[in-house]
Amino acid sequence: MFRPMRRKNQQLTPEACQAVLERGTSGVLALAGAEGYPYAVPLSYVLDGERLIFHCAKSGHKLDAIAQCPKASFCVIDQDQVVPERFTTHFRSVIAFGVIRVLEGEEALTAVDRLAARYSPQVDDSARAREIEGSEARLCVLEMKIEHMTGKQAKEMMGK
Fold first, then answer.
1. How high is the pLDDT of residue 106?
2. Which of 16, 30, 33, 63 could form an SS bridge with 12, CB 3.0 to 4.6 Å?
3. Contacts of residue 25, Cβ cutoff 8 Å, sequence gap at least 6
C-alpha cells in the first residue's frame, strides 16, 4: 500500500522517526483539498503514542478537506542545514501517513490537554483545565492515527 523508500541507505529507523516526532513542535499537514488541489497547512502538534493531535477552528478549509477525504500525511523537518560549499543540505525529516478524525467530548478534552501540556508545561493542571474549558466552544480537536511512517536524513549524517 505504501511505497518503499528509494534510498534505503538514508532511511531512519522507526525509533529515530519516533524521536523526530517527539522533538518537533510543528509540521505540515497535507490533505486532498478543494477541486483536486493539494492543501498543505503548517500546524503545531503533539505525538501521543501512535497518534498525532492537532487543533483548529470549528470550520474552515481543513475540516472541509477532511470531511471529503480523511487520509492525510504530516511532515516534520527536524534539521535543515545548508552547506553552500558542498551544494547540499544536511537534513532529517519524517512523514507520517494516516487517517484523521474529529474528536469530541471527553476524548477531545483529554487530547487538547496533552497538546496544551506540551506547549505550556509550566502551567499547572487547574489553570490549563480552565483555559481549555474556556475555549471548548470554538475549538476542534483532530487525531491522526499513524498507519505508516518514514524518515530520511542526508547521507552525510548517517550514524549521527
1. 86
2. 16
3. 44, 45, 119
Residue 55 has a CB neighbour count (10 Å cut-off) of 19
The length of the chain, given as a count of residues: 160
Asked if residues 118 and 46 have their Cβ atoms less than 8 Å apart, the reply is yes
DSSP 105: H
Q: Do residues 46 and 53 make contact, with C-beta atoms less than 8 angstroms apart?
A: yes
Return the biggest CA–CA distance within the chain.
54
* The model scores a pTM over 0.85: yes
pLDDT in tens, 86-130: 887 788 999 999 999 999 988 988 898 898 889 888 888 788 777
What single-letter amino acid sits at 40? A
Distance (Å, rounded) from C-alpha 53 to C-alpha 46?
5
Residue 126, pLDDT score: 80
**CA 20 – CA 151 distance, rounded (Å):** 9
